[in-house]
Amino acid sequence: MTYPRIAFVGMTHLGLTSAIAASKKGFQVTCFDPNVDLINNLKKNKTQISEPQLIEMMHENRERLTFSSDPKSIESCQIIYVAPDVSTNDQGHSDLSVLNRLLDVTLDNSAAETVVVVLSQVPPGFTRSKLRKDRAIYYQVETLIFGQAINRALFPERYIVGCLHPTDALPLPYQQFLEAHECPILRMRFESAELAKISINMCLVASVSTANTLAELCEEIGADWSEIIPALKLDRRIGQYAYLNPGLGISGGNLERDLATVTNYANQFNTDCGVVNAWVNNSSRRKDWIWLSFQRLVAKEDAQTKKIGILGLTYKENTHSLKNSPALVFISHLKGGNVVAYDPVAAPNAAPIYIKRVNSVMEVLKGIDILVISTAWPEFKSISTAMLTESMAGKLVIDPYGILDGVGLRANGFTYLRLGMPL
User: Fold this and answer.
1) pTM for this structure?
2) What mean pLDDT is predicted for residues 387-414?
3) Are 379 and 185 in contact (CB under 8 A)?
């Protein structure tokens, strides 16, 4: 079989990881972005995106990857994915300006028979509004999860494709590419596909909010949420893959965007969104879990004098993003103080200037009174009870995700707090 040549337009997180995964599947891939400096760095295997397997796979499949800032480079491609990241503001509203520009560039530099696919997440109605006469445009639901982007692109559960005519067969090159991933292909109208992505995230938020609500109750009544999770996963109505681990609210921007989209539409069409408002409120409350726990155990007058160590600044592990990061929420409450922090990938200027950034775990631990692990980076799992005993001046550890050996720490005189576990 002769594989079609594919282009990905927009070399931010979604476009780059999708392109590299396509090259791993054996396709020749053109990676286009008008940013010359960005493209030059990618030619040298350099990127600011933090993602497992990214650099290694980009290097391994380099002969199938062409990086270019010239829009004419996409002219020979049979399928073009328009895939820039869509940023959101603090209210969850999307900025579609970059996507609009790149979609125009794509349509202006491709033949009429070229399949153009919008991969970036967009609100319902977007793709239909971009249709041009005699041009085939599709919308495909992206599967991006920060920290799992390559694996998700290589092994999707299914493809959801928005079409002008859902009952028609897909163009052969597009069908070939999707079938190479050996998963179900669901064709539907544009608006259904666009809303399907939001629907998936709404169900995820429902699971997260349920776990957070009940984990908080566990902390007060003496139950342990980690003991309850296995019982729920064995219930077929919930399932083993259900998202039941409690967290520090909803962060990263994508889920917040979908909640805002549903709320905006509900207000516009006078439909009910009370449950969505409840999820937003729950997220806001849980984002303050570290601070509320801190206040329960540290006297107000000591908050500015205790030396606090923070491990992790990004909103979750395996990403460089700090969008709505719980760590930054906690730091904002401290209003200065004696704070030292370390994160493996967060940019040097990614946190307030009044905290001290260091370059290793051990630099954080030395002489601190309180340790807060706000991101579940894998390297933090190597921290032993002995290391904390030898390095810390105090014995308070706030570890929301249970990275450390809580039993061992408590046995050695530490006060240890984890989400969903009683004090």
Assistant:
1) 0.81
2) 96
3) no
- Among residues 157, 171, 163, the alpha carbon closest in space to that of 187 is found at 163
Q: Round to whole Å and give the CA distance between 25 and 347.
A: 32
Was domain 289-417 assigned CATH 3.40.50.720?
yes
- Topology agreement, domain 6-191 and domain 289-417: yes
Find, among 171, 142, 119, 149, the residue nearest to 10 by Cα: 119
Confidence of residue 372 (pLDDT cuts 50, 70, 90): very high
399: tokens are 């570890």
Rounded to whole angstroms, how far apart are CA atoms 393 and 355?
19
If one compares 103 and 261, the residue with the highest pLDDT of the two is 103
CB 134, CB 159: distance < 8 Å: no
At 290-310, the pLDDT tens digits run: 999 999 999 877 777 899 999
Looking at the domain that runs over 198-286, which CATH code has it been given?
A: 1.10.1040.10
Residues in contact with 251: Cβ distance below 8 Å, sequence separation at least 6, in sequence order: 287, 315, 316, 323, 324, 325, 326
Q: What is the pLDDT of residues 168-227, one digit of tens each?
A: 999 999 999 999 999 999 999 999 999 999 999 899 899 989 988 888 889 888 999 999
Mean pLDDT for all residues in the chain = 91
- Please compute the mean of the pLDDT values over residues 337-366 and round it to a whole number: 90
Query: Is residue 281 classed exposed, middle or buried when 0-12, 13-18 and 19+ CB atoms within 10 A define those classes?
Result: exposed
Q: How confident is the model at residue 319 (pLDDT cuts 50, 70, 90)?
A: confident
Sign of CA dihedral 62, 68, 72, 75: positive
Mean pLDDT of 13-33: 95
CA 91 to chain centroid: 17
- Spatial strand order of the sheet with 370-373 comes to 356-357, 338-342, 307-311, 370-373, 396-398, 415-417
Q: Where are the domains of the chain?
A: 6-191, 198-286, 289-417
Q: Quickly list DSSP for 325-369.
A: -HHHHHHHHH-SSEEEEE-SSS-TTSS-TTSEE-SSHHHHHTT-S
Rg (CA), the chain: 23
Alpha helices in 223-382 (DSSP H): 225-233, 254-269, 274-287, 289-297, 326-334, 361-365
Which residues partner with 65 through β-bridges?
A: 29
Q: The CATH number of 6-191 is which of 3.40.50.360, 3.40.50.920, 3.40.50.720, 3.20.20.140?
A: 3.40.50.720
